Q: What sequence folds into this?
């Protein structure tokens, strides 16, 4: 059976768990990372030299990097659905996954980390403010994109929605002032109709 190492409140692990649940794929999850440890042991680092979660073992095939894992599982078990079979639609899904990494999470991560994981007296509020401004700019782009379609690549849910769906729940539930983004709000509502999203990603309060 597919094995997944990673604590379930990690955004990168959640992408993989959500993907598996969308694909109805059975898996065994081993808690690892932060308070659970394991990820810095020599045994773990032989699988994943970064010492980060998630890592998967699919019948002897070891893979790390959450987007590579999502793409692999979607291609293997959801080709034509979660992983678009058309080259252009696939590139479109890849584009939004990459955009999440280069433009959204790189700025949302310091906001999330400071407001949720750092003690109030130790928060870097200047960094939070600067980063949140950059996230707003990205959210304006996403909101405009979602004005004319239900999901990031069109009218059907694909792997392209997985990283952004994980980011959205965090962004919308952080204790922050945000610009109104009606199309992102509607997207978030749409994602919440998916049992796999409710089970693994839309888990509140944020931790
Ligand atoms: N680019 C990697 C990043 C992995 C990563 O940063 N994982 C974090 C959790 S979200 C981690 O392992 N942190 C150390 C820990 O949890 O102990 C991916 O997408 O898989």
A:
């Amino acid at each position: 059976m597919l094995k997944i190492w990673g604590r379930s409140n990690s955004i990168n692990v959640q992408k993989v768990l959500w993907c598996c649940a969308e694909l109805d794929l059975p898996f065994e999850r081993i808690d690892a990372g932060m308070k659970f440890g394991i990820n810095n042991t020599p045994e773990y680092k032989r699988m994943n030299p970064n010492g980060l979660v998630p890592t998967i073992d699919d019948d002897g095939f070891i893979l790390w990097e959450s987007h590579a894992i999502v793409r692999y599982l979607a291609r293997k078990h959801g080709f034509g659905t979660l992983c678009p079979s058309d080259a252009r639609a696939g590139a479109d899904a890849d584009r939004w996954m990459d955009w999440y990494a280069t433009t959204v999470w790189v700025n949302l991560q310091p906001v999330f980390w400071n407001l949720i994981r750092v003690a109030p007296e130790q928060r870097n509020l200047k960094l939070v403010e600067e980063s949140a401004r950059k996230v707003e700019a990205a959210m304006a782009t996403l909101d405009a994109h979602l004005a004319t379609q239900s999901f990031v690549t069109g009218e059907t849910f694909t792997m392209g929605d997985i990283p952004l769906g994980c980011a959205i729940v965090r962004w919308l539930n952080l204790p922050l002032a945000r610009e109104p983004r009606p199309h992102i709000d509607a997207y978030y509502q749409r994602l919440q109709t998916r049992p796999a999203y409710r089970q693994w990603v839309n888990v509140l309060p944020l931790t």
In short: Residues 10-12, 33-34, 39, 52-54, 65-66 surround glutathione (CB under 6 Å). Strands lie at 2-5, 27-30, 55-58, 61-64. The first helix runs from residue 11 to 22.
